[in-house]
Amino acid sequence: MKKTLLSTAILSAALAVGMSTVQASDFPNKPLTLVVGFGAGGSTDIQARVLANVLEDELGQPVNVVNQPGAGGGIALTRLANNRDEGYTFAFGTSMTITYGPLATETAYQLDDFRYVAGVTLGQSAIVTGEDRPFGDSWESLIEYARENPGTSYATQTALDRMIIEYISQQEGLDLRIVPTAGGAGMAPLILSGDVDFAYSGGTHSGYAESGEMPVLLSLAEERLVAFPDAPSMQEAGYDINPAEIRVVMVPKNTPDAHVERLAEALEAATQDERFIEITEERILMPVVYLSEDEVTQTLTEQTESYKALIEELGGVPGAEE
Amino acid sequence: MTTDIAERRKNLWSGLGVTLLSCWLLIWIIPRYGGSGMAFGMHPQRLATLGAWVMLLCAAALALASLIQLKKSRAPLFKLPPLSNIWHQSWPFFYVLLFIGLATFIPLTWLAPFIVGTLVALLGERRWYVILLAAAIPTAALYLLTVHLMRIGVV
Amino acid sequence: MPELSAITGAFSDALTLHSISVILGGVLLGYLVGVIPGLNRSVAIAIAIPLTFYMSAYAAIAFLIGLSKGTAAGSAVSAILLNTPGEPSSAATCLDGYPMAKNGQPRKALKVGLLASVIGDLLSTLLLIAVVIPFASVALKFGPYELAAILIFALVFIAGMAGGSFLKGMAAGGMGVILGTVGLDPETGAMRLTFGFAELMEGVPILPLVIGTLALSEMFVQLDEYRRTKGGSSVRLGHNPDDDLSYGEFKKTLPTIFKSTGVGAFVGALPGLGPSVGSFMAYGLAKRGAKDPHSFGKGNPNGIAAAEAADNAVIPASYIPLFGLGIPGSVSAALLVGAFMIHGIQVGPLMLRDHPQMLFTIFAGMVVASLLMLAVGWYGLRIFAKVTNVPQNIVIPVVIFLCLAGIQVQGYGTFGLLTVFGFAIFGYFLKKHDYSFVTFLVAFIVTPMLEMNLRQSVILSGGEISILLQRPIALFFVVATVLMLLHLAWSSYRTYRQRRSVSL
Question: What angle do CA A126, A302, C199 make, to 5 degrees?
Fold first, then answer.
């Protein structure tokens, strides 16, 4: 009895192993992994899950989403840089991690450690505030207010927005109290309760687009925000920075060209899939685009250079001891 | 009463050990690796330093109190446990460490039958079919979980 | 308050066969995963999320809700029977659960745990339904000053209730604080104590730490005992007549359950604190308020009741800031947000206006899930309690393997395995020398939150302490902490004098 049970177990295990080795010979022929450098439930994670679902249909193989949160996406990229999967593992995240990340802290990866298969969404980060503020919801009034009231508080989340606010306060001659927070969920209570005057938001504000509880003061995308067209962009407000973020799919640089092309094809199809469009444009309120590898790589390289110049102008990365 | 003494002795030495550890942390590790930077709110090392001080003070107090108690009851301060005792307590750690090392090259699922089966046998199991089942079932379960349910491949 | 017709409509939707079977599926899956040591909620979710794409919005969410509840109930089982909690929040359950199981009363322990879980969960869900809208704005009154004050209070409170030696407990707490600071400093961006390991940038990963310190170390401890007693110390599910839960005994734990639910709900409603803080605080409170505090840690059913009721009460309460303000207060809440969004629903204050039916149906689904959790747990008890009949020389190797597998499965790699191992050694010493791992764990969990809130408070107030006078809630907790410290110092001094006079 125990013997038959045992042999049946062994037999079925052998069958299972056998089945999974029958495969086609081109890419992809086994499940893929989509790594997200942010926590579950956030806007990047949600998009990633829908994207994975859509890609499954395009690529014909299961795509598993794995969260590796930490260091603003840095931990996931550190792992990806050492990955030898030849494209079976790829990361989905925001370009900020790779353009500004290595400049702000010592990272184990650099811009050229990856290939940027495609850009699929334009980030819509912003500087936001709450309701009932003495400066209303205009950027101009905020600046005036901050000039007259030293100690105006600002909540920062990332190294990049920290640099941006330092630059702005240098240009405008402000004396701000900069409060660190952890993520959108950390910033939201402070803004909603009024404990902090204004803050950076990577995407949290889209959840309050209708209720008006988190008005946008300044758009940190290249142009005005889709969901908050009244707020000026950085260029319009007179600052010479382009902090636009692109959500990209990245693979390690040694990935074979054929695999990268296949992924790019699938991504282009995904950007036209209505499920992806719905989640991106209607839920998290960000525009869907398709930017090819060359376009993205060029944009990111240019951006990194401009950040480097900015850091030099500021005299070092803000907040750290240089 | 004897267990009380033995407990006091354990407290003395563990207290001493923790005190030394916290000193090391305070003098060397935290200042060197604790991070630096201008911080308006709180220096990056402040909380860690605080924690280390708490460790130091409490462990030192513990060691001191135990020392006094032991001296009072005139019990010996040193009582080395028999060497075989140390081996008995530590071999499982080496066992697990060995497999962790192996897991860097070989997926855990293939090591599974050995991890479980060998230990079951080492612990005195003599019935061969029990050893085999104990080895096979967790392995099969892990395989099922990772390959079919979670679809992340062999782990 | 919503209209009665909306509520009854929601309940009738939730009680359809389809809905019940989906929720049941979630609860079962969660329970099974929770019971296995080394596996926890994230694994269950990783299995479940791809499935939910094929379900309707309501079904997907109901499934995930059932899953959360199932894992909470299931991890209590491994905590009680094996002293290996599946999640950090079940660690408090081990404290009285395992001793009770070892004393030949595993069924009683399991039943108390289950009933406490379900009641805590149900009451908290009802609270959620009743107060979500008005309370949400109350939650906003708890800013960084208040949170910092509460966290300090919680830390001191929990440190004070460490069983055994106060000094050892504090030393362990100090270690927890130091480890809690490891990682990227949010303000300066400096790497603290990471020694160059990228994996530590976000702090010591909690799962390997908990599994190593609590579960794997426990296996080593049990191995040691096993070799000494040659198998005589395992938990035996015999036909001990005292091993079942009588109604009278259950009634005695009710006050504890209610109080602990209150603590858990309070902690859950404040964004960010988490179920571990809730369960430990409730345990501490129960111990302080008991007539026989010394029986805690040795198998007092009230200990189990407190830990489990609070642990489970936190989760529904953490949906209050979620539905009321759009802020997820816990990992479970964050996952719900994701699931909602994928299915086209914007979570937040407008949910009541735009999707009221959906909201109430979900609430109804939560209640159904609680009840199903009771059913699954009750029958699960019988099956899983049989695990205790398996001889220890088989259980221990399997659990050791599961601990390692749990880490591998969640992608921590060799670093994770080494971390588990390192903490297993650490936990072994803590247990063998009777240093309270509870204080250590709580200090570790609380420190990052405390530091962040302290920083924010200091910066926002410009360093002026007088701000406290304008924030009564924060002031209250600061004063409470000081009083507590004085009380602790006084009572431990008194015990010291007593012991001295006895031994002289």
Answer: 70
Taking an 8 Å cut-off on Cβ atoms, the answer to whether A317 and C201 are in contact is no
Question: Please, are residues C458 and C192 in contact by the beta-carbon 8 Å criterion?
Answer: no
State the average pLDDT over residues A203-224. 87
Q: CA A176, A178, A180 angle in degrees (round to 5)? A: 170
Instruction: Tell me the HSE value of C178 on the side-chain side, using a 13 A CA sphere.
Output: 25
DSSP H helices, chain A, are: 2-21, 43-59, 74-81, 96-99, 101-104, 139-148, 159-172, 183-193, 257-271, 274-277, 293-314
Could you tell me which of A184, A180, A181, A183 has the C-alpha nearest to residue A207? A184
Count CA within 13 A, CB hemisphere, residue B108: 28
Give which of B6, B2, B26 is closest to B14, Cα–Cα. B6
Q: Are strands A216-219 and A89-94 parallel, antiparallel or unpaired?
A: unpaired
The complex's ipTM? 0.88
DSSP conformational letter for B81: P
Using DSSP, state whether A40 is helix, strand or coil: coil
For A38, list phi and psi in degrees, rounded to 5: -135, 165
Alpha carbons within 13 angstroms on the beta-carbon side of residue A181 total 29
Helix (H, G, I), strand (E, B) or coil at A289: strand
| β partners of residue A218 | A127
Whether the pLDDT of residue A232 is over 50: the answer is: yes
pTM, entire model: 0.85
Among residues A201, A68, A188, the alpha carbon closest in space to that of A131 is found at A188
Residue A23 has pLDDT above 60, yes or no: no
Q: Is A1 exposed, middle or buried (0-12, 13-18, 19+ CB in 10 A)?
A: exposed
The pLDDT tens digits for C151-181 are: 888 888 877 766 567 788 888 888 999 998 8
Show which subunits contact A, needing at least 3 CB pairs below 8 angstroms: B, C
Within B45-127, where are the H helices? 46-72, 83-103, 108-122
C341 to chain A: closest CA residue: A283
pLDDT of residue A20: 41
Q: Do C433 and B45 touch (CB under 8 A)?
A: no
| A278 and C CB contact within 8 Å | yes
* Phi, psi at C290, each rounded to 5°: -80, 155
Residues of B in contact with C171 (CB under 8 A): 15, 18, 54-55, 58-59, 62
Instruction: Establish if A319 touches chain B: CB-CB under 8 angstroms.
Output: yes
Pick out chain C residues at pLDDT < 50: 1, 504
Phi, psi angles (nearest 5°) of residue C55? -105, 165
- A251-273, pLDDT tens digit by residue? 999 899 999 999 999 999 999 99
Contact C201 A195 (CB under 8 A): no
Helical segments of C462-471, H only: none
Closest Cα of chain A to C460: distance in Å?
7
For residues A27 and A88, what is the distance between their CA atoms, to the nearest angstrom?
9
Residue A10 has pLDDT above 70, yes or no: no
User: Would you say A280 and A123 are in contact if contact means Cβ atoms under 8 Å apart?
Assistant: no
A300-320 pLDDT, tens digit per residue, is 999 999 999 988 888 877 765
Instruction: Give the model's confidence band at B2: pLDDT under 50 very low, under 70 low, under 90 confident, else very high.
Output: low
